[in-house]
Amino acid sequence: MALTEKQRLRIQARHKYSIERYGYEPSALFWSSKEIQELRFQVILNAIAEFSDVTQSLKLLDVGCGFGDFNAYALKNACEFEYVGIDVSPDMVAASQLKYPGLVTFNGEIFDFNWPDNSFDWVILSGALNEVVDDSGKYAHSVIKQMLRFAKQGVVFNLLNRNEAWIASRPDLQSFYPHDMTVFCDSLANEVICIEDYLPNDFTMVLLKDL
Questions:
Q1: Domain residue spans in the chain?
Q2: Where is the Methyltransferase type domain (predicted)?
Q3: Which residue, 92, 34, 39, 23, is CA-closest to 63?
Q4: Using alpha carbons only, what angle is made at residue 166 by residues 161 and 169, rounded to the nearest 5 degrees?
């Protein structure tokens, strides 16, 4: 279920304006602070480290990569991935390559790419499904399925928690119930872990494939 042209242009325009307003800061990616952005990164990194040897050069795909800050955070924590980032915003991709020269990033959503199955050890996503695309959540479900197809070992992504009152009151934000998302992911993956203990308005899903 790919984005329509109208949806794609709306997201691109929103991110272009955000970069023009905030520059290359986490606020341009709609994070409330760098600390909150990096807390989510740490949860993702911890999940990968629990099931893989992060001292090895694992291939990692970052969906909705923004500026590619996850890779910089991983390097700061002694984890060097064979990193590839994708983002539907051409301005984000251009900014990522200016901010981190040599970083491998491509413009497009996940359905624009035809990598073979299991092309990456891990596929991650942080914050990129917080934008409302459809009320049903079907777009998010289709993205998760595609992420899992490209992953050899597993997928890690975070979502906004609809159980939190402020999040539930925001129709402009895409949010999910952790229980419902766990049930959905259980239908896809060999093992599913839901992590909820780091922020009241956020949760992280870890989907593991048969190794």
A1: 5-208
A2: 61-155
A3: 92
A4: 95
- Answer for the pair 115, 106: CB distance below 8 angstroms, yes or no: no
Give me the phi and psi of 137, to 5 degrees please. Answer: 85, 5
Closest CA to 206 of 50, 37, 1: 50
DSSP characters over 25-66 = SGGGGT-S-HHHHHHHHHHHHHHHHHHS-TTS--EEEEET-T
For residue 46 the two structure tokens come to: 């911890």
Residue 127 — φ and ψ, nearest 5°? 85, -10
Backbone angles phi, psi at 126, to 5 degrees: -130, 105
First to last CA, the chain: 28
Below-70 pLDDT ranges, the chain: 211
CA distances from 109 to 33, 73, 94, 190, 208 (A): 25, 23, 15, 25, 22
Contact 139, 147 (CB under 8 A): no
Q: Does domain 5-208 have CATH number 3.20.20.300?
A: no
